[in-house]
Amino acid sequence: MSRIAASAGVSVGLVQHYYASKDVLLADAYDRTLQVQQGRIETLVASEEQARGRIEHMVLGALTQFLPLDHDRRDETILFDHFSSVALRQPSLLEAWQRTDDVLLARLREAVVNAEECGEAREGVDPDDEARRLLAVTRGLARTLLLRDDAHEVARVRRVLAQECASTFPNPCRQYGS
């Protein structure tokens, strides 16, 4: 709470005045951070759609938003990790985490289904399994970067995530020929 107060330029007491508990503050920070992150993803996907980009590139760009590649995304990753840890002990926070997880998985699943329709997806791919795999790999890579933040590791993580996406979407798009 002290870090949040300091970053806002106010006292801890003032922050506590507006939030009934640390969990309520954490939930609010989580929701607000998700909105910012989703805004970045929506902008990226809209740009790729307008350019008739590959679904592979849309998914890779979206998943990259979960990696701590700059100061803001590093803070987001730390917040998400902390939120998931606290959610293990707080049923209401766990429900919020699970709802968010379900939304992310549904969006990834939809991307895989769309890729099946246009021919980009690997033949015989299970959209639910692929969505789960891509999200799990991304979360693991994000945690790796938190703990091993150097240029070589950043390059490696970017490469691994690109390879994971390429393995899901190895074929050209029949609709746009990309």
TrEMBL record:
The segment(s) forming the BetI-type transcriptional repressor C-terminal domain are: 59-169
| Highest rank taxon of the organism | Bacteria
Name recorded for this polypeptide: TetR family transcriptional regulator
InterPro entries tied to this protein? BetI_C, Homeodomain-like_sf, Tet_transcr_reg_TetR-rel_C_sf
